[in-house]
Fold:
Amino acid sequence: MAVAACRGVRRGLALALLSAGLGSASATWLAPAAAEARARALLPRLSLEEKIGQVTMAHMFRFTEGGRSAPLSGTAAQTFGTLKPGSVLNGGGDTPQPNTPRGWADFLSALDAVGRQSGPQNIPAVFGTDAVHGVNNVPAATLFPHNIGLGAAFSPALTREVAQATARDLRALNAAWTFAPVADVGRDPRWGRFYETFGEAPWLVADHVAAAVEGLQGEGVAATLKHFAGYGLAPLGLDRGNAELSARTLHETVLPPFQAGIRAGALSVMANSGSVNGVPAHASRSLLTEVLRGQLGFSGLLVSDWNDIDRLVGTYRTHADLVQATAASVNAGLDVYMVPNTVEAYAAALKEAVTTGLVSPARLDEATVRVLTFKARLGLLDGPLAGSGSVGDHRALAEKAAAASFTLLENPRGVLPLKAGRVLVTGPAQDSAAIQLGGWSVNWQGVGRGNVKDVPRVSTLAVALKASAPAGITVSALPEHKRPGLLAAAKQADTVVVALGEPPAAEWEANNPGLSLPAEQLALLRDLIGTGKPVVAVLMVGRPIVFPPELHAELAGLVMAYLPGTEGGAALANALYGRAGFPGRLPFTWPDTAAQAGLSADRPPEGAGKAPQPLYPLGHGLDYTTSAAREVTAAAGPGSVTLSAELINSGERAGTVTFVVRAALPASGALQAVARPVAALQAALKAGETRRVAVTIPNERLHTWVGDAFGAVRPELRPGTYAFTVDDSRAELTLP
Structure:
C-alpha cells in the first residue's frame, strides 16, 4: 500500500470533518500539517517531566473527591499540576456525580479548566472513554445493539449512522475521544469480546470499521482502532492469550479491518492486550512500528490498553522491572500509556529510561508531538469546552438498528409470525435490561453490577409483546422461577415464547468455553418443550449457542436477537407479530458443537475426511418471504471486480434480501478457502420485486498471500479463473 496515498486520503477527509473546541459543531478540524506545526512549536517549551506527563494517561478518579464516583475534588488543580497528564480516562462504570449528561459536561468542563490553569503551557488533557454502543456510561443515553448485531445487518451505512449519533452525544458531554471501534475479527465465539466484533469475515469487519470511523470523526470525535493486532485469535477462546499467527493469517485475516480504518482516517490506534507469537503486543516493535506504521501507513496516536506496561512485569514476566518494560514499549512504538492509578511510578520509570539512555530523547519527543498534534487536530488547544450537557433521543435509530439485526434461524412449523390465540412469554431475558444490553452498559460488566446500579430506560420483550399485541392475540407473562404455575399456564397457551440469554459480562468474565446457556435455562427450555406446545426461543446473546440436539430439534422457532440495546423489545415484538420481517443474517459461522468453535467460512480444505459442517453458515437467515439470486455477472475494472446479480423477492411479503458473495481463487501453492467470502449483495424488495444489484470488490480481497511456511509472504492477484457464487448462481472471470 502506498503510504503517501493513504496520508493524502486522511488529509482530504480531515478537511471535511467536524471538530472542535468541542463547542462549535460548524468548525473544521485543523489540518494535519498545521496541527503538527503547532505541536512542534510547543515542544521546546516543555521540560522532560512535562513531556513525560503528556504521554501519560491518568484515571479521572485522581481528580475526584475520595478517588471514587464523585464531583471534582478541591485539590484537583494541585493534583493536575503534580501529574501533568496529557490525557485522562474513566473505566467502565467510573463516572462523576451526578451521572447525568449535565453532570458529565460540567465535570469535564471543570477538569478542562483545571488543565488549562495548571498544566504546562496551559495545555489541557484530552479525555477518552469507551463509548462502544452509544454513550454507554450514562443511564440517560440511548444504547444501540452491540457490534455483533450491527454486523448481522450487513449495512455499513447503518453502522455509520449509529456512530454519528454516538459522537453527537459524546460532544454534548464534552468528550472528544472514544476507544472504538473494535477492529478485531470474531473468529472464536468462546472469547469474551466476541460480541464487540462485527463478525468473522475480514471484509465485513473492514466495511463496518471504516463506516464507524467515518461516523464518529464526521461528528468531531476521534476514533480508536482496537486492538492492534491479533487480539481475538488467542487459543481456547481465552481473553488476553497468546495468538500464534502465521504471516499469511496476519495479512489475510487480521490486518484488513485496521487497514480500512486507517484509510478512513482514524486518529488513534490501541495496542493488543495479549501477545503474538510469544511477544506481548505492547513490546513488539514488529507489530507497532514495522507493520502498523511502516506497512499500513498509520501516522496518528498509538495508545496502550489498561495497565498493559505493568502487565509485562507482573503478568507476562517478559521484563524484569517497570523501567525495562517502559523502555521496551516506548521503543516498540507506544505513544501514550493508559495508567489506571500508578501515574507516578510510570513517570519515574520513563524518566529513568530516558536519563539512562534506554529511551532516546528523540523518541520521547516523537511521542509528545503526536499527543500535541492529536489535541491540536481536535481543537483542544483553541479554547474551553462548551458541550450542551444534553444527549439526543435516539430511540428510533436504536429500534431501527435492532430490527435490522434480528436473524430468524428456524421456523419449521410456520408458527411465526404469531397469528392468533394465547401467547405465554417467559424466560430470564423477557424483562431484563441487564441481559438485553450486555456488558459495557452503564457499568463495565453490565447493568446492576459493580459500582453503578443505575438502570437505563429499556423496552423489553414481555412489556412490548403485551402492549402491542394485535387483535386476536392475548399475551401473558410469567417469571421462570415459579415453575409449577408456569408450566400449567404453558399447557393452556397456544404458543410459548421463551427469552433466553447470557448474564451480562465483559472481557475475560464473558468467556464461555462451552458455548452454553446456564443449566437452569436449558432445564426451563426442556420443561416448556415437554408441555407439547409450540416453543419459540429468542436468544439475547453475544455469540452462537450450542443447544442439546434433542432440544434444538423440538423448537418451533429460533430467533437470534444478539444484544439489541435499549429498544430491542419493541423491535422484537414487531418482528414476532409480523409487522416487520427478519432482515438480519449471521455475521459468523454457527458451530454444530463446542468442539467446532473457531470454524469459519474461509476454512481451507481438509487433508483427509469430510470437512466439518456448521449448524448454520455465515450469511444464514430466514424471513417471512423467500428470495433468490440469479444471472450473476462479473467484470474486471481498474483495481477491482464489479459483481452484480438479480435479487428476487419471490414471496408474498416485502423483505430485505441479503446474499454473501463467495470467490474461488486460482491455485497458488498455499491453502486457501474453497469459496472465500468477499462481499454481500443486499436490497429491500417489495413482494415479487426483482432488482439488479452490484457491488465493487477491491482486488486486494482476491489477493493470495503466497510464500513458504517460514518464509516471507507477499500478496498476489493470481492469473487465472475466479469463480464467484451468489446463492446458487455462479459467474466466472479470467484475470491476466
